[in-house]
Amino acid sequence: MPKRQDCQIEQPSQCGAVNKRNKLQTALSDGNLGRAREILSGRVTSSPFSSQLYEQFGVVLLQIGDYSEAGKFLFLSGVHRPEYEAAIALFVRRYSRAGWQSLVESFPRRVKRGTWRALPANVRAALEANGAPRQNDGQYIFKTLRAHPVGRISCWRMVLLFLAILLAGLLVSVVVAYLHVLANGG
Questions:
Q1: pLDDT, tens only, 139-185
Q2: Using only C-alpha atoms, what is the Rg of the chain?
Q3: Distance between CA 137 and CA 101 in Å, rounded?
Q4: pLDDT digits (tens, 9 = 90+) for 96-137
């Protein structure tokens, strides 16, 4: 595909951004939501947090019918419109069941690697309403998650719990058998 003449001469550093914007606009105007999703997904993973980008991605996901994912990006955008509320509520309800940490763990890596200050104020307030501790704006989100881990049961704890239950069952069986033998005069 040949480059535009003005990209070659005047502003070569801007050429890539113009082409990317054009690709997204073309996909949206053609109704190719799958391609628009692909383009925006790449931008979300490679760009710093942007409310506008997250809202745009959320709207495309909403149009595709991926309500939970749409709710995530619309929630993070901080933009609340009536048409977004159902998707946002679905996302929050689904991911906050195990605590605010689960909600934050579901955020894109780029967001978790950022600071609390990067999030819109209403997003921070919503997280606090879901139990997140009030944070210093300059603190990194992932450090807060490390300081307040989700109560998870490790694999070894599950094995130990299983063995304890098995041992208790065996002990009860032995005691019942012994009592049965004593009751029958043996």
A1: 888 877 777 766 555 566 667 787 888 888 888 888 888 888 888 87
A2: 26
A3: 17
A4: 888 888 888 999 988 988 888 899 999 999 988 888 887 777
Residue located via tokens 């005047």: 10
* 3-class secondary structure, 154: coil
Give me the residues paired with residue 115 across strands.
Answer: 140
Strand, coil or helix: 152:
coil
Tokens describing residue 148:
């307040």
Got the DSSP string for 70-113? HHHHHHHHT---TTTHHHHHHHHHHHSTT-HHHHHHTS-HHHHT
Query: Whole-prediction pTM value?
Result: 0.68
Q: Are 51 and 120 in contact (CB under 8 A)?
A: yes
The set of residues, in sequence order, having a beta carbon less than 8 Å from that of 92 and lying 6+ positions away, is 71, 75, 103, 126, 130
